[in-house]
């Protein structure tokens, strides 16, 4: 489930997206975490450590 939450929604298969939506309806806390992650993703940058 964490993998589904962390993945971009465009990269979920239809059955995964449906299952994730069902889980989010049953658990508003996880839905809040997912939305928080979406809002934060723009502030995360990748750093080249070479």
Key features of this structure:
mainly alpha, 50 residues, globular
Radius of gyration from the CA trace?
A: 13 Å
C-alpha end-to-end distance = 32 Å
Low-confidence stretches: none
Q: Structural class of the helices, strands and pairings?
A: mainly alpha
Largest sheet: none
* Global mean pLDDT: 80
Describe this structure in words.
This protein is an all-alpha fold. The protein has one domain (2-37). It contains three helices and no strands. The radius of gyration is 13 Å and the shape is globular. 2% of the residues are buried.
Concise structural overview:
This protein is mainly α. It has helices spanning 2-6, 14-26, 28-40.
Secondary-structure blueprint:
Blueprint: H1 2-6, H2 14-26, H3 28-40
Helix pairs in contact: 2-3
């Amino acid at each position: 489930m964490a993998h589904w939450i962390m993945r971009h929604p465009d990269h979920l298969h239809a059955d995964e997206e449906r299952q994730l939506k069902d889980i989010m309806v049953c658990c508003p806390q996880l839905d809040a975490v997912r939305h928080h992650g979406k809002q934060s993703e723009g502030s995360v940058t990748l750093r080249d450590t070479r």
